[in-house]
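User: Can you predict the 3D structure for this chain?
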Amino acid sequence: MAGWLKDLGVEFDTIITSPLKRAHQTASIVSKIFNIENNLMNWDELQPEGNRIELYRKLASEQLFKQESAVLIVGHEPYLSSLISEIISETNASSHVVLKKAGLAKIRITSQAQTTHGELEWLLTPKPMKNISK
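Assistant: Here is the predicted structure, written as structure tokens:
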């Protein structure tokens, strides 16, 4: 999947991952394919039941990321689906995203004032990605 993304011209500046074994292994593979091994970070906030407020605070940190950074986040379900849903939800609307195992979502962050908000640009599930890459 990582090779397919790279062939499509997708780029990442940084990869942030849960330190748990399977997520870290996945992130490590992707970091090698994208040649950004030095920009791979383990964050405890991405573990299941991680601290969302701290995760949002770290993501908003000016010291870590430029405004247009492309960050890949590797974590666990249902935590990631819940984070995505929360970020793309508007105050009066409820959005619920289900991220399948090995699925990808691209979110453009629009605001990080008091909370993190963004727009879902695309959501890919593994089955269509496998079909496209054949």
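Residues 25 and 56 are 23 Å apart (CA to CA). The chain is about 35% helix and 20% strand.
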